[in-house]
Amino acid sequence: MTTITFIEASGRKVEATVTGETTLMELAVAHDVEGVLADCGGACVCATCHCQLDASYSDTLGGPGPIEAMMLNELLNVSEQSRLACQIDLNAELDGLVVTIPPVEYL
């Protein structure tokens, strides 16, 4: 079982638990996390699932791939912890991950 805490731009916290295979985006959508629009359904072509991940998980997650990095470049509020939730496959190593959803802003 993997438990993820989402913090929406408003400050509201949403705790979600998953036992099967899914992506961070799918989990956020299933729990109505505000700010995760997921317009492309996980195809990594829209950046509407932008999130910022707890820095302590950087080694576990690694960095964004080239297409993901290109999509992140289209956003205004990107940080070193920015990722697209559709590109994060959840597993037991990510149990306890805190995910911040920044305000939605595009170039």
UniProtKB/TrEMBL annotation:
The keyword Cell membrane is assigned to this record: no
Record bears the keyword Transmembrane: no
PROSITE patterns referenced in this protein's UniProt entry, alphabetically: 2FE2S_FER_2, ADX
Alphabetized GO MF terms: 2 iron, 2 sulfur cluster binding; electron transfer activity; metal ion binding
Location of the 2Fe-2S ferredoxin-type domain: 2-105
Keywords noted in UniProt: 2Fe-2S, Iron, Iron-sulfur, Metal-binding
GO BP terms in the entry: P450-containing electron transport chain
Cofactor(s) this protein cannot do without: [2Fe-2S] cluster
Superkingdom of the organism of origin: Bacteria
Family note: Belongs to the adrenodoxin/putidaredoxin family.
Protein name: 2Fe-2S iron-sulfur cluster binding domain-containing protein
